[in-house]
Specification:
This protein is α+β, with helices and mostly antiparallel strands. It has 17 helices and 12 strands. The strands form 3 sheets. The protein has a 5-stranded mixed beta sheet.
Length: 441
């Protein structure tokens, strides 16, 4: 165990039933009813994006189809998502977090880690009594204050985990809901964390759970106590990393990944966007339209954050068996130019898919990785057309300014208008991108 890390005070704040709670704030008449925020069924997004506590008690779950949700809860009230509104409340919550620390790492719109180790004076006012100044009491005090402030100012509730590392803080925020605080300490983590199912550990998904079950590892304690060599041989590097998490030895810092406030961590962050098309993608023309729509969103986000990408990735999911795979390509030069990212993404897709209708595609994701600062020096070459790239950068900048002033749909490329149903979607507005906290893509 890393003794020098145990003096950290890390919080993980999770806004309870976030999308549904915001909708109930806006519509008080549905506050005491089972509510689900659901996608557009006509656009094949007919799933539960979020639910409130009443809907959960009826058996409604996130990612469940709305058809199944209504079978389980006939009185279910389904409302369409309003992502700009959720982002507004997300920003309001972050503004509260920033009153306690500038080390805030968002983990999606409704979650964030906070390192409040340097904010200990907020609890005791500088008193020196060791009992009053214990890290446990400081963390609990600050978590309590944040919970009260979010409830009184935003009308929402949060569950907060308090620990000395990010993984156990995240576990704590999930451990009790809603409107709860859970303290995970070096003294109690084996009783609380180690007895929990292994899938409750951060980054243990279905596939990893199956691999761990094959090794007879069913609890987090089982994972923590297993021979590291066995984990590495069966799961590779991720096996060792997850064991570090299970043992409470995570020393990952809280990284200020909010580009509106602080510098971006260029080593671990990626920018991507995925979309399930309103109909199967059968032709190269349809694929090109969706690729450009996604690439425009990704490139615009890169420019907004002052970044360029050295690698472009494409994830493809087909309609037949919903199988997916990822391919990537390295760019000749770091870029945030929409057309360059789109061309690279479409080249990847074309090289791996027939695009003749024989293998219908359901969804595509475009992701930019290996990010660098946009204004870093660039080595030119005599064979490149740098004047053309400068013109494309200026064009993108002009389009960004128009969209900032008049909305994302005010300027569209011709290829984006090929399909009326698909072109009606504002991908940048209607999708929420999660930052990458621990692992590189």
């Amino acid at each position: 165990m890393f003794d020098n890390q145990q003096n950290r005070i890390i919080l993980h704040s999770d806004m309870n039933y976030f999308y549904a709670a915001v909708e109930c704030l806006r519509r008080p008449e549905i506050r005491n009813l089972p509510v689900a925020v659901g996608g557009n069924e006509e656009m094949r997004h007919g799933i539960v994006l979020a639910k409130n506590q009443q809907a959960k008690s009826c058996g409604v779950g996130t990612a469940m189809t709305l058809v199944e949700a209504r079978k389980r809860c006939p009185d279910l009230v389904v409302v369409p998502p309003d992502f700009p509104l959720y982002q507004h409340y997300s920003r309001l919550a972050k503004s509260i977090y920033y009153q306690y620390t500038d080390l805030v790492e968002p983990f999606g719109p409704d979650e964030a880690w906070l390192d409040v180790s340097g904010s200990a004076h907020l609890e005791t006012g500088g008193k020196s009594n060791s009992k009053e100044n214990s890290t446990d009491s400081k963390g609990l005090f600050i978590a309590t204050q944040i919970g009260k402030q979010i409830k009184s100012e935003l009308g929402l509730t949060v569950s907060i985990g308090v620990s000395w590392n990010k993984v156990f803080a995240k576990f704590g925020s999930d451990y009790k809901k809603p409107d709860a605080i859970t303290l995970i300490t070096p003294q109690n983590y084996q009783d609380i964390v180690w007895n929990a199912p292994v899938e409750t550990l951060l980054y243990v998904g279905r596939a990893t759970k199956r691999k761990l079950a094959a090794l007879s590892l069913y609890t987090i304690g089982d994972l923590a106590r297993e021979d590291t060599r066995i984990l590495t041989s069966q799961l590779g590097k991720i096996g060792h990393t997850l064991q570090i998490f299970a043992r409470g030895e995570d020393i990952t810092p809280v990284k200020p990944l909010d580009p509106e406030r602080l510098a971006v961590d260029y080593d671990t962050k990626s920018v991507g966007n995925g979309f399930t098309a309103p109909h199967d993608i059968n032709t190269a023309y349809e694929a090109r339209q969706l690729i450009y729509m996604l690439s425009q969103s990704v490139a615009q986000r890169l420019r907004e954050q002052g970044l360029k990408a050295k690698t472009v990735c494409v994830q493809v999911r087909d309609q037949t068996d919903l199988a997916s795979y990822v391919r990537q390509i390295q760019l000749d030069k770091p870029s945030n130019i929409t057309s360059e990212i789109a061309c690279a993404a479409f080249t990847l897709l074309e090289a791996n898919e027939p695009l003749d209708g024989s293998r219908p595609l359901r969804s595509l994701t475009v992701r930019a990785t290996d990010l660098v600062v946009a204004d870093q020096p660039l080595q030119l070459d005599i064979f490149g057309d740098e004047n053309k790239r400068i013109s494309l950068e200026r064009l993108d900048a002009s389009i960004d300014e128009l969209r900032r002033r008049y909305g994302n749909s005010c300027v569209r490329r011709g290829v984006e208008l090929a399909d009326e149903l698909m072109s009606s979607v504002d991908i940048k507005r209607d999708n929420v991108v999660h930052p990458v906290g621990f692992f590189n893509d």
